[in-house]
Design goal:
Chain lengths: 165, 213
């Protein structure tokens, strides 16, 4: 047997699902949060690259649902369920939400990283998806890659090297 | 209707001129600091998706040195001055006299970081003051911040405002290059000007070409 492994790439404000042996990856997370939802029984997972906490921030009629924590997680759960996962078997790992630049600005948008992390956690709680591991905050960019067969999330940063959670 | 759909080609010409004046002034400053001729390209004004914007400077995961400055006042936005690490290293060595600076082993010496930060301050400050003179708008710089990290992590920060109204951004991109000999030229750095959505209208009106005419 000679299966090729594909790496599914998820862009900014984007999402996708994956089945083993393939991997799923998103790069250059700063204040954005990468949310991985995976099946503990089957080798299925999904990844969303969330950019903003809440779709009520949107000032336009049509929204990109992968962009906001509140809309992305619901859609991701739907797509994973279509692959045959039961919601009770799902768990999550999250990474990102850094504060890339330190400003003493009054503008709330400047601390968007922590707000994204809070919004993602709140949304996962709403769907009763437990978070088994997280690497959030700090001031470094992250590139993450999830393997649905080992259920490990590989995280690479510029200054702190590589780790698996 | 998205603000981007209201922008016509003559508006893009104006943005090109804005980039030209800003980066031209900054290139002059850089020439003076380094005592070298610095060339600059005609600004490239592009309407791009967020992922395409990352690709303009080597892709989301590419590591760069960047000075980031928020514009406050009449027409808020963000200015980035981005350098490949190799080039940032050269500038640091030229300014500090350090000979074996490396981005491989942080933490970096305080003097090298502050030299790079100061270079960025001067350049982004001269970009902004040219912009302010040209438009007659009151524009103030925030304290510039230096980041050495992945392109995606650095640029997404400047997209926070525009991402609330659109999945596309208007990037005013000017590349600066050094004339190494009479023939070869290589791109050394990029200026990106990203205006907040409501600032376009203000700049166009200030220059006499409002959006809804």
């Amino acid at each position: 047997m000679n299966e090729t492994v594909n790496i599914i790439k998820v862009g900014i404000a984007d999402m996708n699902v994956v089945e083993s042996p393939n991997l799923i990856r998103t790069s250059g997370l700063g204040s954005c949060v990468g949310v991985v939802i995976y099946d503990t029984q089957k080798e299925i997972a999904g990844l969303a690259h969330v950019m903003l906490p809440d779709s009520s921030l949107s000032k336009t009629g049509t929204i990109n649902i992968a962009k906001y924590a509140d809309t992305a997680i619901e859609e991701l759960l739907y797509r994973i369920s279509k692959l045959g996962s039961k919601q009770s078997n799902l768990k999550a790992k999250i990474a990102g939400g850094a504060q890339m630049f330190q400003f003493s600005s009054q503008n709330d948008m400047m601390r968007i990283g922590p707000r994204n992390v809070d919004a993602v956690k709140k949304e996962l709680l709403r769907f009763r998806i437990p978070i088994t591991a997280e690497d959030t905050g700090g001031s470094s960019g992250r590139t993450i890659e999830f393997n649905p067969s080992t259920r490990m999330l590989n995280i690479r940063t510029v200054n702190q090297g590589v780790k698996d959670i | 209707m998205s603000f981007i759909e209201q922008i016509k080609s003559h508006h893009l010409d104006i943005l090109r001129e804005v980039g030209n004046i800003g980066a031209g002034n900054a290139a002059t400053s850089l020439s003076k600091i380094l005592g070298k001729t610095i060339e600059m390209t005609v600004p490239n004004v592009r309407i791009v998706s967020f992922d395409e914007m990352m690709d303009m400077v080597g892709g989301s995961e590419n590591v760069i040195a960047s000075i980031f400055l928020r514009i406050e006042g009449d027409a808020p936005g963000s200015i980035y001055f981005m350098l490949p690490l190799e080039q940032a290293k050269k500038y640091i060595e030229q300014m500090t006299g350090e000979t074996n600076f490396s981005f491989e082993n942080p933490p970096f010496s305080e003097i090298s970081v502050s030299a790079l930060q100061e270079l960025g301050n001067i350049l982004s400050g001269s970009y902004l003051s040219a912009l302010s003179d040209f438009t007659q708008l009151n524009l103030y710089p925030s304290v510039p911040a230096l980041g050495i990290d992945m392109v995606g992590a650095i640029l997404s920060y400047g997209l926070m405002e525009v991402s609330q109204v659109s999945d596309y951004a208007i990037v005013i991109d000017t590349a600066v290059s050094e004339q190494e000999d009479s023939i070869t030229e290589s791109v050394k750095g990029h200026f990106f000007l990203l205006l907040d959505p409501e600032s376009f209208e203000k700049i166009f009106s200030a220059l006499g070409v409002p959006i809804d005419e």
